[in-house]
Design brief:
With 186 residues, this protein is of the alpha/beta class. Helices cover 42% and strands 17% of the residues.
Amino acid sequence: MDLDAVIVLSVGASPDGGLIEEAKQRISLAVDFYKAASVGKIIMTGKNAPGEDLSETHAKTMERYAIDLGVPAKDILKEEISLDTVGQAFFTKRNIVLPNSWKKLLIVSSDYHMHRVKAIFNFIFNKKCVLNYAHVNTKLIDDHNVLAAQDASLAAFVKTFEGVVSGDDDGIWSALIAKHALYKNL
């Protein structure tokens, strides 16, 4: 698998602003792909989650961890605007992937999150890139409340972007800032 980049989705922070174990697992999986020489760059995503008051972005904290695992800083890029999965897909595409003309990507998240991740990234990218997916295993895959929340979030995503053509960056941007509660103030 020769990939231009692996995109690591952030997953919240511990109360002290550090990485939770699930985030470390996601980063470690991405680093494994990097060290196997199957990916050129690693993109860390995420500003922070709603309600978090952190001294640095999730992406920055994730970058530090990957460097500790042996990835050179020159091979890590950061997307530091997004507040959720939709933003991670959109801002990574617009600000990093398209300017670099990358075509082959791997998106890393967690098992319980993957159904929603695929729907969102496939909609945002609309075949402009070959998207591959990898996940870390968690106990949350068996938590019906977590899965129900993922389904509800996916339904809200579909409603927010109803009538928008898949892959239409201008249409997606307009809906994002007009209808998505986390981005209305951009």
